[in-house]
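Ticket reopened. Same input as before:
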Amino acid sequence: MASLAEATTRTEAAERRRVRPLIATLPAVAWLLAFFATPLVIFAVYSLLTNELYAVGTPFTLDAYRDALTSTLNRTLARNSLEVGLSTAAVTVMAGLPIAYWLRFVARRSRIAVLFLIAASMFASYLVRIYAWRTVLGSRGLVNSALDRAGLIDQPLGFLLYSRFAVIVALVHIFLPYVVLVLYAGMGPLGEGLLEAAQDLGAKSSLLWRRVIIPIMAAPAFSAFVFVFILSAADYVTPQFLGGKDGVTLGVQIQQNFVGVGNWPLASATSFLMLLAFVAVFAVGSFILRRLKLNDIRLSS
Amino acid sequence: MQGRRAPVPTAITIAALLFLFVPLAIVVLFSFNSTGSLTFPFAGFSTRWYHQIIESVAFRDAVVNSAFVGAVVALSTLVLGTLAAYGLTRASTRLRTPIAVLLFLPLTLPGLFLGLSLLVLFSRVEVNLSLGTVMIAHMVYVLPYYLLIAVAALQRLDPALEEAGADLGANAWLVFRRVTLPQVWPVLLAAALLAFALSFDEFIITFFVIGPDSTLPLFIFSTLRRTVDPSVNAISSLLLVITLALFAIAFVLTLRGSRTSGLSIETEPIGSAAR
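Engineering reply: fixed in the latest deploy. New output:
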């Protein structure tokens, strides 16, 4: 009997050892419940209330959702946001893959230096980068004056700045470092032996990418794509400075509705419709990955 | 296998580095331009824009506010984040997953929504907007980034050392202080510096929750909106130097940290240790 009691206390002690460390997460959990979850819930409730100009009141109504969905302006801006988000995500992932590959398999002594530069540029100020692109793409900026001096143009190219193009360029500049680091980390399971084996079996470089690298990188590339898509589609500062007329996005409109117009339910309803769209993009993407059986390729390296 | 020949990835990497750094270099270059012109050609060398901004009281106030907010945010995140990372890596129960999801979720929420939600909360409970509300917001924003680094560092440690400490009769706090902390402190310090840098540069959320005060990014925002003011180049260059210096220190600390815990990022990509 004594040994049974002893065994029970021992499993209880083991159980305690497995669960007890979670207590250490409590302050952070409490913080996020108070200042992340709670505000989101209140903000969601606002979307169901009546607009009272910089305030909200009862009765509960779906008017804000109806207004958000029927506005033709919103529809145009949503399309702009979608285009900006998809283009930024596509460009960063497509450029990020070969860079991550280079860091993992090509680089020798320069790897640490290049990793340092790419990660450092992630911390270069957000506003400064927007400003830098305004300087570079301006009518007398670096690009136009170089083209002019080369004799390629007589008139500065106006579409460079204050356009959707400028917004996408700046957002790619902002998010490329994140994507490279995520993809580089994702290349972990891609062992050196695997590439060699494929090559020994006669795989050409294009086949190697198609059959080995891209399938393994599908899941991390998808995470990076969704991350960039969400954050760039909802950006409201870059379009304000670089967007001009055709680069205005839904994020700018939400901010204007809240701060400028004071229609809080409308701003809230538009925000949650946008979040819903993000979840939909994520769900469709995961579904496709699962269908192609690319969602969970694991290799022991 | 290392050093296989690959002209296309090499070219793309070089192009990306130019793309990332040339625009920033141009801002720094023009901060030393002797005329107010923001266009080529470059007129001549001068430090007049730096003199001009350093004399500006509004600029100095903004810098002091940003540094104050950043320091409070970094220190609180260091405490809150280290505890949370320790709990996440040392517990093994089903409850772990929902907690981890909550702690990392702010990463995926755009700053616009976080800023608006917090503004609504503060107006609901009638808290006046101030640097205090900015700190609250920044701690939500910075925590998951801190956790990414801290969790990876704590996961990498050899559990045998902590078990040995516990078997020798040390309580959890003593094991943490004498066994765990000595192995990871450089990385945790680096993560706290990055938390400071993220807070120092944060604009998207800050815009909604700041009230009457100003921070450096808000000062830059209003300067950018007003006119084409050539002193923006000097302000931007200073901000770049500050954040990049913080990052460089953090990078060196991380290299040191991975060396003391017996791992080298020279052979292991960052994420592979987390598996």
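Residues 72-106 of chain A form the longest helix (35 residues). Chain A touches chain B through 96 residues (CB under 8 Å). Please confirm and we'll close it.
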